[in-house]
Amino acid sequence: MAEPPLDADAVLRSFSGEVPVFPLPSLVLLPDTIVPLLIFEDRYRRMTADALEGERLIAMALLKPGWETQYNAAPAFHERVCVGSIVSHERLADGRFKLLLYGLFRAEVVEETQAAPYRKVRVRVLEDEVRDEVARELDERLHQALDRMPGRRGRVGRIRQIAQQVRGPSGGVGRLADAVAEAAELDPEERYQVLAETDVLRRLDLVLDVLERKARSGPQTLPPRVDPTLN
Asked: How far apart are CA 50 and CA 57, in angstroms?
């Protein structure tokens, strides 16, 4: 199925502020990255169908500890989310959906506006905070971090290439910090800390701390990964 082209600026300009939320226990979407999703629960099939008829947006949220006892009800999730746009979808014969969701922007949940058949929230869009006097230092530190990531530099480049297709060549060091975080293969809690941090300097410090720990633990073999592209 041909998908409409993604214009990130246009999506932000027309965003209603209300979005369906898909909380998961171990998946954190970062801006300018793509995640494949298989939607099989009835409530989330309905959510996906409604999203495709509407703004084509879904907020990915990380469930808080203790979700196991409440999953079929309304378990608590962290208030910082990433709002993603459906850039590819396929409805399978049994009613499930296969999606590619592209992370567009950080947001903070203001209130929950719908509880059933799936949850919806009103959010406040969050902007990166970068002080001019540290922007150059950040850029240098990020490239030094990439030098310590042999095998991951190519992944950062692919993430950046896709982001440029969607957003153009601008975006600054905040966008690069997210790409480095994605390539660094953080665990869900580490990824959430990166997602929740709007101060780019502190976000970079988080990523660099993880990279230093990985470097001390020795070289790691990267798993194979398919990098989807936007056509």
From this structure: 10
Domain ranges across the chain: 8-125, 132-216
Q: Give, in degrees to the nearest 5, the angle at Cα 124 between 210 and 13.
A: 110
What is the full DSSP assignment across 176-222?
A: HHHHHHHHTT--HHHHHHHHH--BHHHHHHHHHHHHHHHHHT---PP
pTM: 0.83
Look up the CATH number of domain 8-125: 2.30.130.40
Question: What is the rounded distance in angstroms from the CA atom of residue 47 to the CA atom of residue 119?
Answer: 9
- Per residue of the chain (231 residues), what is the pLDDT tens digit? 556 678 888 898 999 999 999 999 989 999 988 999 999 999 999 999 999 999 999 999 999 887 666 666 788 999 999 999 999 999 999 999 999 999 999 999 999 999 999 999 999 999 988 776 666 776 677 677 667 666 666 667 776 676 666 666 556 677 777 887 888 778 899 999 999 999 988 888 888 787 777 767 755 443 333 333 333
